[in-house]
Amino acid sequence: MKFLNYPLNVVIPAGASGIGESIARVYIEEGCNVFICDVSNHNINLFKEKYPVAYVEQVDVSDHSQVARFFTNVSTKIDHVDVIVNCAGIAGPTAKLVDIEPSEWDKTISVNLNGMFYILKHGIPFLKKSKSPSIINIASSASFFGFPLRSPYTAAKWAVIGLTKTLAMELGGEGVRVNAICPGSVSGKRINDVIKEDAKAQGKSVAEIKDLYTKQVSMKTFVDSEDVANLVLFLCSQYGRFISGQAIGLDGHTEGLSTEL
Prior knowledge:
By secondary structure, the protein is α/β, with parallel strands linked by helices. The longest helix is centred in the middle third of the chain and has 26 residues, at 102-127. The chain has eight helices and seven strands, in the order E-H-E-H-E-H-E-H-E-H-E-H-H-H-E. It has a seven-stranded parallel beta sheet, with helices on both faces. The protein has helices at residues 18-29, 41-50, 64-74, 102-127, 151-171, 189-202, 206-215, 225-236; strands at 9-13, 33-38, 55-58, 83-86, 134-138, 177-183, 247-250. The mean pLDDT is 91. Strand 4 (83-86), helix 4 and strand 5 (134-138) form a beta-alpha-beta unit. Helices cover 44% and strands 13% of the residues. It has one domain (9-185, 224-250): 3-Layer(aba) Sandwich (Rossmann fold), CATH 3.40.50.720.
């Protein structure tokens, strides 16, 4: 039984691995037309082997010209977009703010925030042609708290909430829903790498830092990328037709982000 009433045209930046791949998979299983871009040629090749029906293009979302080209190419395949799921993001450096290089700050903001702006700028005109348009921005539980040693990442994710709520106001009259999903620690390579960097910065073991992350969650658990994908599918379906302007936590209830500095 299909969850959606009809196939959708879905754009997923950073859709070739991690959370993005899980989201792409659930849409493909629903019979949707999926258009992804990703910066990693390696991940793209692996994705193509698994899901040959999807459209895939190598794009660095922090480069405005590449994003513009991507939507130009997509427009030759379809005349409208129903859903944009903004997944592109990097962890950024793990260090105190005074020790972060300006280039590290700029790169994190360029991918996590500017990239989202570029995708939306070029994608919204195609969304407005849809009968049921929806934007879902992937934020973070860090969008609600301070996060020591992760200032550029946290700054970008707080900005995503402001962007989401503002767009919901701008586009609501045209029927476009705009929401943000705020996952906690999502099991996989990315959070494992973050934990390793955090452990190195604090002179602690990986096990100690992972235990600290887990203790900050009421349900004492990480979430899976499939959990994010299922919530994305719900929000863009008929069941989420009046949900807009929301920043939805998906984290087992994070009590606060702290570190033993």
